[in-house]
Specification:
27 helices, ten-stranded mixed sheet, single chain
Length: 926
């Protein structure tokens, strides 16, 4: 049965705001009559597997399941705002929780979530189909959300159905991302600067050839035994399902309309081709997802530059001490996921560092990626996108996103564990994830999967257990200084002068209906070494070097498929220990959480390399055998990895929280900012209070999540101390006094960024919100720059951005992405202000900065910057962008479903919560 849906291309894949003028309403109506095709309903009921959730499993994934749209549907959406069926029916309930959570009860949860029970009641069946006429698989879609419930009698048929359903819901998006993974996006979807930036960001990290992609498949299958063979068979069946839908939709002319708008198909004659998918496409997709969400580390060169700046300011010994205090490798005040005193030492500071290769001052230059620009690729917008992409590619500040709240049965009203968890993957139309239920031989699961990788559920539930993940960020990426020889493209490898490997991707584009960017072209060029791709050039002690980055998952993104296969297998996962065994097969850096009717569990995944003795993971080291990973094989990029017991892990802790915070004591994460104030504290404080009180329910835990999702971290955990300094003497200046009063009122109200009423598009305490947004960067600079000096202050801001308000940009996921307060200087401000107040500080900064340690001088600086902030207009604080006019505070924070295809959706009020989210409480166990 034909299925029509919407699709587009990332913040980074922009379709123009308006289609050409000739696409007027009259012509749209004429086209619609010829392009719409009927969709028939079915009445069969999806088979129901063993379901131990007792109707207490729920989930949500905005904007909607339907992510494909025909040309007719896209034109109707652009002209009249009409939505294809199930394109945004999960957006409203998701948005409504922001105002509905205070009175939430268990019986109202599915007002804001889907019922995630297995199967579809017969009176709720919207349609039934046998894809490609197969007798061994059935796809049933429910009336409420249109989620596919795939039931197969054979393994092949089950996976064929999964591929077919994925193509029905996300074909255009899948096609987009297989091109992103190959660095071919602009040639496929258009040369918009955002598209250029996206393909450049990922090509730096994973510059793979087709042979490299195939080698990953061969390697993963070869080393994984029977499960590897099964994974390959599953992929083959899944691809057959995708390609069957491509053929059927092409013949029936109900394929995504973006193929028409980008010139791949002719809307009149249907000439043109939608390329079939192949196995290497899935590897390309995996490399994008792994790079975005599961590859912690990097930033060693930036670390070295700030260390050198600190040593230049204070001398080597004192400068190093100052640097370490800002780095907060293992801050004793940091919020922890494992809080029972467990210690898991990893990437700790060595007593006597060995092999460091710090650059000579002023010698570092970033390696160029783009060459031979022509046409629109030479413009300032294109070059600006390239600069942003380059910074994102080498930063350690991965946009981790995602959160988890899990409470053991000992502290719940029912005696069964309760979990509210999910990934924050940004907001797109269609969404990067899709929902599905898969039931077949060896597979029984419902949940979310990344489009194009949905042969298994990646985050979701089984028959009597649920699992989810947050990005963990531990360091699996190291930077090596390879010594150059002969010229700039040869280097020493084990004493032999060796040629670098040149990998290139030439792209060109021309205007289309979807993207009017003028014609242009460029070539991306990466020089690869055995120690990974070259990212920087410099000198070390006068010697010319290239800095390369090597991550343990490089050329191994496919390996994680075995872990996901196991999570979907009811015979493989029967309890928390089995869950941990499954996640041990996942080499991406994630925190994994588990709940069933009796137990909760946690495991931190990733291939953590065993580093040579004395190597400090924070800085570049020489590319010499003495400093390589233990038993590293350059040909396969394999090494010894820390044992599973050395990874943070736990079963049945009283509760777990995670919001990309520190996992456990002594477990060093790559990003900066894991100190005394972290957004994880917003969850920790609320969940701890619930557990202390006892009787936790699904509703109370969801309320805790939703309340944290609306709270300004700075207002809750830092602003009270700032107000205490201001109040140490009477505030006599009327402007400052008025601002203080407004801030105090807001803090007393909870420090939330929330509408006055649902749909008002105006914040309660709007002036206080504006004042803090304006004040924060001013007070941070006024507090720290005088003591650090301009050079060191600037260097530290390169390691850790000063602020991340809801309106901030988020790299590849763009602004208006929901996620906020992950990275910022709130911990530094908190520790420094407490020191000025004379309060005890564990793990203090090496010096006191605010007012040089003088309470009076600190207060004067705060008063001065507060007055400056209070005088700034809303238009100055919220300058406007492609989505919002200047001065629109609510809009600046709002969440936008960034168009990855032709369908657009309305903005929703800000929430800092998972994109896909589960609320679960199992009532029984097998």
């Amino acid at each position: 049965m034909p299925r029509r849906t919407p699709g587009t291309t990332l913040d980074t894949l922009r379709t123009p705001r308006r289609f050409p003028k000739f696409l007027k309403a009259a012509s749209i109506c004429a086209l619609v009559a010829g392009l719409l095709s009927p969709v028939t309903a079915g009445t069969a009921q999806a088979a129901t597997a063993d379901d131990h959730c007792g109707g207490q499993c729920s989930d949500i994934l905005p904007p909607g399941e339907n992510g494909n749209a025909t040309l007719a549907e896209i034109l109707l959406n652009q002209a009249f705002g009409t939505q294809p069926s199930h394109a945004e029916d999960q957006l409203g309930p998701y948005s409504d929780l922001a105002k509905g959570y205070p009175t939430l009860t268990d019986d109202k949860i599915n007002t804001f979530f889907n019922d995630a029970s297995f199967g579809v009641p017969s009176d709720q069946v919207a349609s039934t189909e046998k894809p490609a006429g197969r007798g061994d698989v059935t796809i049933v879609r429910d009336k409420k959300s249109g989620v596919p419930h795939i039931t197969g009698t054979t393994r092949y048929g089950t996976e064929f159905g999964a591929g077919y359903a994925a193509a029905e819901d996300r074909l255009w998006l899948m096609d987009v991302f297989r091109h992103v993974g190959r660095g071919q996006l602009t040639s496929f979807a258009g040369g918009a600067p955002a598209n250029q930036g996206l393909e450049q960001q990922f090509y730096r990290s994973a510059p793979y050839t087709e042979a490299d992609l195939q080698a990953q498949i061969d390697s993963a299958v070869a080393k994984s035994g029977a499960r590897g063979q099964q994974a390959l068979a599953d992929v083959d069946a899944y691809l057959a399902g995708i390609n069957a839908y491509i053929d059927a939709s092409d013949a029936g002319r109900y394929f995504p309309g973006e193929y028409d708008l980008t010139g791949h198909k002719d809307p009149i004659t249907n000439a043109g081709t939608i390329e079939h998918f192949k196995a290497t496409d899935l590897v390309a997709l995996s490399s994008v997802i792994g790079s975005l969400f599961g590859s912690g580390g990097g930033g060693e060169v930036t670390n070295a530059l700030s260390l050198l700046a600190a040593q230049a300011k204070y001398g080597v010994q004192e400068g190093t001490r100052v640097w370490e205090s800002f780095r907060e490798r293992n801050d004793p005040e940091a919020v922890l996921t494992l809080h029972d005193g467990q210690s898991f030492p990893y990437a700790t500071k060595p007593d006597s560092p060995q092999g460091e290769a710090l650059p000579d001052p002023g010698s570092v230059t970033q390696e160029p990626l783009v060459y031979d620009r022509t046409g629109s690729a030479t413009g300032s917008a294109a070059k600006g996108a390239a600069t942003t992409a380059a910074k994102a590619a080498v930063s350690s500040a991965r946009r981790g996103m995602s959160n988890a709240l899990v409470v053991s049965g000992e502290h719940t009203a029912s005696g069964h564990p309760v979990a509210v968890f999910g990934p924050q993957t940004g907001y797109f139309a269609p969404q990067l994830l899709l929902l599905q239920e898969i039931q077949g031989p060896g597979i029984s699961a419902r949940g979310a999967s990344f489009a194009g990788l949905s042969m298994y559920v990646e985050l979701g539930r089984g028959q009597d257990y649920s699992w989810s993940a947050t990005t963990s960020g531990q360091d699996i990426i190291d930077t090596y200084a390879v010594e150059l020889c002969q010229d700039d493209v040869h280097y020493l490898y084990h004493g032999t002068c060796t040629a670098m490997d040149k990998v290139e991707q030439a792209n060109s584009w021309k205007p289309t209906l979807a993207d009017g960017t003028a014609a242009g072209s460029y070539t991306m060029r990466v020089w690869r070494t055995k120690y990974g791709p070259v990212q920087y050039r410099a000198t070390v002690g006068g010697k010319k070097v290239a800095y390369t980055t090597l991550r343990s998952s490089y050329r191994h993104e496919v390996d994680s498929i075995i872990g996901f296969q196991m999570l979907n297998d009811p015979d493989a996962v029967k309890g928390p220990q089995d869950f941990q065994k499954a996640t041990q097969h996942i080499n991406f850096t994630f925190n994994w959480f588990y709940a069933d009717a009796q137990h909760t569990a946690y495991y931190n995944s990733g291939d953590n390399p065993v580093r040579a003795s004395g190597v400090d993971a924070e800085f570049p080291v020489w590319a010499r055998q003495a400093y390589e990973w233990k038993n590293w094989d350059a040909a396969t990029n394999t090494a010894d990895y820390t044992p599973t017991s050395a990874h943070p892990n736990s079963v049945d802790q009283d509760y777990y929280i995670s919001w990309n915070n520190k996992q456990a004591e002594d477990y060093t994460a790559a990003p900066w900012g894991e100190g005394s104030v972290h957004r994880g504290d917003l969850l920790e404080d609320r969940v701890k209070a619930l557990v202390t009180k006892g009787g936790v329910t699904r509703a109370s835990l969801t309320r805790a999540m939703a309340d944290a999702a609306l709270t300004d971290l700075r207002a809750e955990d830092v602003l009270p101390k700032l107000l205490e300094v201001l109040g140490s003497s009477p505030v006599t200046d009327p402007t400052a006094a008025a601002a203080v009063s407004k801030l105090q009122t807001w803090v007393a109200a909870g420090g939330r960024r929330t509408e006055t009423s649902a749909g008002s598009k105006a914040y309660a305490n709007a002036d206080a919100v504006r004042i803090l947004d304006a004040w924060w960067p001013l007070l941070v600079k006024g507090e720290f720059e005088p003591g650090l000096g301009g050079d060191l202050y600037t260097a530290f801001t390169a390691n850790l951005a000063v602020d991340e308000s809801p309106s901030a940009g988020h790299g590849a996921t763009g602004s208006h992405a929901g996620s906020a307060f992950q990275y910022g200087w709130w911990s530094y401000v908190d520790k420094d202000i407490r020191a000025v107040l004379g309060e005890p500080v564990q793990g203090p900064l090496a010096r006191t900065y605010c007012g040089g340690g003088s309470l009076g001088a600190c207060r004067d600086m705060l008063i001065s910057t507060l007055k400056q902030a209070a005088g700034m207009t809303a238009a100055q604080v919220y300058p406007g962008d492609d989505q919002c006019s200047a001065g629109d505070q609510w809009c600046a924070d709002s969440i936008v479903q960034r168009a990855l295809g032709g369908i657009k959706h309305g903005k929703i009020s800000w929430q800092n919560r998972p994109t896909y989210q589960q609320v679960v409480e199992y009532t029984s166990h097998r």
